[in-house]
Design a protein that fits this description.
- By secondary structure, the protein is α+β, with helices and mostly antiparallel strands.
- The chain has helices spanning 4-19, 26-44, 48-58, 63-66, 86-93, and strands at 80-83, 98-99, 106-107, 118-119, 122-123, 139-143, 148-152, 154-155.
- The chain folds into two domains: 4-66, no CATH class; 77-158, no CATH class.
- It is globular and about 50 Å long.
Amino acid sequence: MDCAGYRKLVASVERDEKESPGFHDYRGKLAWAIARAKHYAEKTGLTAEAILDAWEGRRDYWYMNYYQECNQPDIHGEKVHVFDTVAEMLVSIGTAGFRCPACNGASRSAYECTTGRKLHGKTCDWKVYGLFGHMGKGTAVYVKEKLAGENIFMPIAWEKTPSPL
């Protein structure tokens, strides 16, 4: 692989190998990131180099924490939806809102519960970016024009619509 993202990631791995040899499986993480970029390329029609460049361009913390399943989820089944554009994604999501995985209410936000429902004696304030994410009840979206994906609450419009993948 020959791209700026790969060179940046390899430089980070080599620095860590020199500064803290044997502390982590740095090369294993590098291999995982490359394999995941190739997987994304296969699923999206983009190049692995473009995907790795985008990831490395956005990465602002340690690669050992950045490259993991929750940040670059496997693209398969009905849990990940791939779109060419943001506009295409927004049309697909519609205006019905998003299903909060904690209280099961209809949230206006894809990331934070806004239902006002009470859960265990307090107003539900579940967040998809919290420790337990969407608890397996949400989805991930990937937008090719942005070379980016993220986890969100399940759009209500998709609850009965299977993923095209």
